[in-house]
Amino acid sequence: MTDITLLFDNFIGLFIESAPWLLLGLLVAGIMHELVPVSLLQKHMGNNSVGAIFKAAVIGAPLPLCSCGVIPAALGLRRSGASKPATVSFLVSTPETGVDSVSVSYALLGPLFAIVRPVAAIFSAIYTGLMVKFFAEPDERKQQDAPAINTNQCAESAAKPAMATSTCCSTAPKENPVSSCATTQAPNDTAQSDGCCSSKSSPKNTSATKPLGAKITTLLQFSTGKLLQDITLWLLIGLALAAAIQTWVPTSFLTQWGDGFMAMLVMAVIGVPMYICATASTPLAVGFLSAGLSPGAILVFMLAGPATNVSTMGMIGKELGRRALILYIFSITSASIGFGYLLNYLVDTFALTQFIAHPVSGHHHGETVGHLYTLCGIVLAGLIIKNYLQKSFNKGTGTAKSSAQSCH
Fold first, then answer.
1. Which residue ranges make up each domain of the chain?
2. pTM for the full model?
């Protein structure tokens, strides 16, 4: 009974800890979906070129979004037109580092980790994006290489050269219902259909003419409604798994493996499903470092932990396909271990231990910040409950299916 109580307490603690960052991610996703022009995403992240992958990694690195907040942000990017490799690159670099985590790394772990961490995050993101680019299924690569992002939302429209540079809905003949987008689209490409298959013009085509109040209402409805519904299940599963790890996996298990390959592999295996953000992983890394783990093993944990968790993997499998998910997990694991070995080599060769701090300290929120986190947790729980009740009501009235399939 004590363990169950501790498990529940850990779950609530993780939920509250992640709530403000998740709400921030939802807000960013809504802003990108409503206000960022499709043409801008098409220019920078709309294809699977190396340049798009690199830009996604660099854009995502400084953003203060953790492993929970990046999910809705990346989902919004994907549904606004970003290619699969660029989306994956953004998914890796954004939670692995950020302006907040770099400052915490410098304060708790020293300047070496403050430099190595963002560099490793960017290169890991580029590597993962390249893996998806070169080893995705052939039909996925053809869709990513289409001249316009929105053309691969409608298989029939994309096949016509005359429509290659415009959205499926805006150019579709009137006698061809736009609802065909939903029926002809491949399951793995559902991520891009949002905002296209509707009897009205795409929000991206009309947002410039909307008043500010209407834009704000639309982006809030999108971010706290459809997007939050899509990630809620995996969010709760991920938090539950992380709480179980905190409850039943002792620190001694993580620190008994020393500093070799096995230590890095264990840290990767533990970090992959763990639901933890880059900032919150830093105090844990301090404890592991003080307990005897090598700097390389610590880096593995700080890269693999924030970049992967059950929630992120569930979203990738649903929106990008199983092949992309397998490549994502393999790339993160191999890149983190590779950078771990590289860091250990640099530390041993150039005697860089003087640039690594060894404080034993935890991360505690002040009273005011703690109240803010709790308030965000209440707001997030209220939104989840509201969406659940609304979905149940729609199912009861027989309207849920038609509204959910209109553009998903």
1. 2-151+189-404
2. 0.63
